[in-house]
Amino acid sequence: MRVLVVNAGSSSLKLRLLGDGDELLGTRDLAAGDDVGAALDELGEADAAGHRIVHGGERFSAPTVIDDEVASALDELTELAPLHQPKSLAALAAVREARPGLPEVACFDTAFHAGLPAAAATYALPASWRERWPLRRYGFHGLSHAWASRRAGPGRVVTCHLGAGASLAAVRDGRCVDTTMGFTPLEGLVMATRSGSVDPGLLLWLLEHTGMAERELAEALEHDSGLRGLAGTADMREVLAAAERQEAGAVLAIGVYVHRLRAGIAAMAAALDGLDSLVFTGGVGERAPEIRARAAAGLGFLGVALDPERNAAGAEDLTALGAPARTLVIESREDLEIARGVRSALA
């Protein structure tokens, strides 16, 4: 089965054609407004398409064949992911128009976390709220966490997806038992432009005492916070370079980023009653050895220790000799995880 993988981002559309053995047959990265049909013609024929859908809500917890009823249900979930879901649905519509009749499967970023234990998924909010509205911790980046944890193997695995967005997952023998993102992708770690977890009382204070509008607050938390808010740039490479020059904002940004990352890894390990493997993935996780080293430096009590030379060289296995826990770098391949989901749904 040749699978067309459709991954819609905030400003781009990534198309990947994978062969029977998951070999990469073709790639196209499109900007907004580019002709999807022409790109599909250039890639060649596919037997099925797999779409990365950010939010599956409470209904969708596994790869799902898309028909008109499912497409309508996905549109109804837009209010849970207003920044991300419309992009995915626009890509779905474009592919359906260009390739009518092509079997399509929705693969959800939330699905890997759908089975979180109640203690990890539930917010301590009034029961009447939780009964009336779908207020729970959903988690995101599930396709990446699923791929990375499977590659790491069985046992107690903490996966660190560190990119523009960032989240952690605690995985025991392939099952996610905790994660850092929650009802939205704003919860958890410091990210490129997102704040991560902030005291809700602080946000209420801003709304009550400064006259700030809700939309202004939302824009700031999503687009002007995180590394950008601390260092003036969302690019981790630029932040690290500025920190090397001892620029105060960048030094603070790295300190805050690593502090939250280290604390989050420890929390995920606590959810697993220990740690067998620590995995770094995503753009920062794969290509920022200093971040890996600084995070690991405070995790010796969990059995984590890196080999400095292997870490600097970007090896896959960074584990220092004699360290009880393995530390790995695994390339993020959401496309392969999506293709896996397509084949299982259409089998």
Structure description:
By secondary structure, this protein is an alpha/beta fold. It has 2 domains: 3-108, ATPase, nucleotide binding domain (Nucleotidyltransferase, domain 5, 2-Layer Sandwich); 153-329, ATPase, nucleotide binding domain (Nucleotidyltransferase, domain 5, 2-Layer Sandwich), CATH 3.30.420.40. Helix content is 42%, strand content 18%. The chain has helices at residues 36-43, 68-76, 85-98, 118-121, 127-132, 142-152, 200-209, 214-223, 226-231, 236-244, 248-271, 282-287, 289-297, 308-313, 334-346; strands spanning 3-8, 12-18, 24-31, 48-53, 64-65, 104-108, 156-162, 166-172, 175-179, 277-281, 326-329. The strands form 2 sheets. It has a 6-stranded mixed beta sheet with strand order 3-2-1-4-6-5, sandwiched between helices. Strands 9-8-7-10-11 form a 5-stranded mixed beta sheet, sandwiched between helices. α11 (248-271) packs across α13. The mean pLDDT is 96.
List the helices and strands and how they pair.
Blueprint: E1 3-8, E2 12-18, E3 24-31, H1 36-43, E4 48-53, E5 64-65, H2 68-76, H3 85-98, E6 104-108, H4 118-121, H5 127-132, H6 142-152, E7 156-162, E8 166-172, E9 175-179, H7 200-209, H8 214-223, H9 226-231, H10 236-244, H11 248-271, E10 277-281, H12 282-287, H13 289-297, H14 308-313, E11 326-329, H15 334-346
Helix pairs in contact: 6-15, 10-11, 11-13
Name the descriptors.
347 residues, alpha/beta, Nucleotidyltransferase, domain 5, 2 domains, 6-stranded mixed sheet, 5-stranded mixed sheet, 15 helices, 42% helix
